[in-house]
Amino acid sequence: MPMLSHAVYFTLKHRTPEAAATLVAACRKYLTGHPGTVAFSVGTLADYDRAVNDRDHDVALTIVFESRAAHDAYQVADRHEQFIAEAAPTWAKVRVFDADLAEFTAS
Questions:
Q1: What digits encode the pLDDT tens for the residues 74-102?
Q2: What pTM value is reported for the model?
Q3: With CB atoms counted within 10 Å of each terminal CB, which end of the chain scores lower, N or C?
């Protein structure tokens, strides 16, 4: 059974370093430690100005789940829903990319 990568890119209404730091802190508070999580990372837009880079986001979140079932449980978890309720008013746009992972190696 493949693991699932859940990548979320947030564009904020107020695109300031302070607003991005607040969202990163909320991600760490509400989205870490869910059952079935294999890896968690969150951070801000990297300072790369390359033609291939999509720069229309302020915060990037990636969580790798051991299975689709773990991901599906996370989606309806109280802490995830609390995160959405508190943080959503700050978002201008959210893009979600879910992918089945053929292989995952933590290095």
A1: 999 999 999 999 999 999 999 999 999 98
A2: 0.91
A3: C
